[in-house]
Design a protein that fits this description.
The structure is a homodimer. Chain A has about 300 residues and is of the alpha/beta class. The first copy, chain A, contains 13 helices and 14 strands. The interface of A and B includes residues 79, 93, 95, 101 and 115 of A.
Chain lengths: ~300, ~300
């Protein structure tokens, strides 16, 4: 079965690991709205998380970065007086430096991502949602506008979020292959990534949402279990932005294209609510505590 | 006593450690001809060696880089297919990245060096010979022209050298403070650094050699002991370029400005040869095996 999956950070990466085991052909379309230049290098956190997880070299406990990585560069920069709240491991730094130099020499972001994943032995095609500059910005309830990494890392998601903006999104185009991957997929999977921060930017790209509406088989896995996000600020954001923090609320955000929805087995009321809207619902254990758990969720999503 | 010293890499750094203990006021003028951009960052190897030695954080055994540094960034770049023959430690990388970003934001090289040495607690003023781009290039006996780091690191100084060129030198000016430091110094010390690769570029800068000729007290420490360089390719270069590999040959290269010369105690014939030309000669143990040995050589040079 030919699968295209929209993904952001860790939640997406975990499901992709399962999909990699089940799908005969898998293309991951990954959020780049949290890309930034840090310490002079282009970080692409969601893309790198996905790549490292699929390569089997991710720091699974921490969720981001590489297993057994060190932080000597960033620590040394701190000693030189550079603000170093953005943690970036030394090997991770090398990935970003590689990307930076390739971009400087004229490569597209997609090319650099493909080179890195190939070098790391990842058989799955990893596409950035776009080669263009899109910057996720957070408007807080107290009226500040923060760059995504300021909100996410520096302020540790503490501020209440009033609005999420994607600067540059209307001039951006999906990266080459993104729309084709969606159209040609037997099934499109929306990973259990943050619907506002990770899936949101991809859906906001011109052409993507329309392509999903036209697709006969789009299935999402709920990122919310019993009102809580498994990781990150999705639940609090869904509340503060008025969507409500529940599996069914996320399904509503996708209801113009959603054909099937995977809900955690511990959320039967949410499953019923979504089923009542005519969307096919599967209730399974969605906690992806290891690779075989990821595979089970992937099988459910593709069933 | 107010001292200005011209220095290159390890030999210069060792003597500077001694001079730092003896001089009341010390300015180091350091070669930048071996500066380059590596992995997207500006390396300034001689400046950094000197800074790390004076800060007491150098890897004394290896000579360059920082004690207990790791090489994770460069190793990871290698895994991504980047040529990584230029070893650069992770903390060392941070120094170079700091410099790169400050230069990009409009700082001069001298400013970045002053910031780093201040941050690392070095009380000695460290001046780059110039803020301008000067690139040492090596013409080999087989007719190739190599960038300095290609010759020095990639080819490990193996090629025979026919000629040393300093690209950009005639348009370069000494960094602010360099000529003043030389003029105002009670004594100018030429460190036992490679006379062709380390001292050569500084002397070739417009104004420097003339300033030394006018100075009443210029003393050099021989980098050659019993026909051999203590470190690096100076001896082989002096031979292949026709100067001869001896302490007296180096004194001859400096004879238009040299007032005194420190020769190793194991080289009495060389001492006599130089003394016969009217230059004051001191014979001492010039092997700087530790800081107190460096201090002894510094005391001799300033006596």
């Amino acid at each position: 079965v030919k699968v295209a999956a929209l993904a952001g950070g860790v939640g997406g990466a975990k499901l992709l690991v399962g999909l990699q085991r089940v799908a005969s052909d898998l293309t991951a379309v990954v959020n780049t709205g949290d890309d930034a230049v840090m310490y002079g290098v282009r970080v692409s956190p969601d893309v790198d998380i996905v790549t490292y997880w699929l390569a089997g070299i991710a720091d699974r406990k921490r969720g981001w970065g590489l297993r057994d990585d060190t932080f000597h560069v960033v620590e040394a920069l701190g000693k030189l007086g550079i603000e170093n709240w953005f943690s970036l491991g030394d090997q991770d730094f090398a990935t970003c430096l590689y990307r930076t130099q390739r971009l400087a020499s004229g490569a597209t972001l997609a090319e650099t991502i493909d080179e890195v994943r190939t070098n790391l032995g990842v058989p799955v095609r990893i596409l950035p949602m776009t080669n263009d500059a899109v910057a996720t910005r957070i408007v807080t309830s107290d009226g500040r506008t923060l760059e995504f990494q300021e909100y996410f890392v520096k302020e540790r998601c503490r501020p209440d979020v009033r609005e999420v903006r994607f600067a540059g999104i209307s001039e951006a185009t999906p990266a080459p292959g993104v729309l084709a991957a969606l159209e040609n997929a037997d099934k499109v999977v929306i990973c259990p990534s943050n619907p506002l921060l990770s899936i949101g930017p991809i859906l906001a790209l011109p052409g993507v949402r329309g392509s999903l509406r036209n697709h006969p088989r789009v299935v999402a896995v709920s990122p919310i279990v019993k009102g809580a996000a498994l990781k990150g600020p999705a639940d609090r954001m869904l509340e503060s932005m008025g969507y409500g923090a529940s599996a069914s609320a996320v399904a509503r955000m996708y209801d113009d294209f959603l054909d099937a929805y995977v809900v955690d087995v511990s959320d039967p009321e949410e499953a019923e609510k979504v089923a009542a809207t005519g969307i096919e619902v599967l209730s399974v254990d969605t906690l992806m505590i290891d690779d075989s758990a990821s595979e089970s969720v992937a099988r459910a999503a593709l069933s």
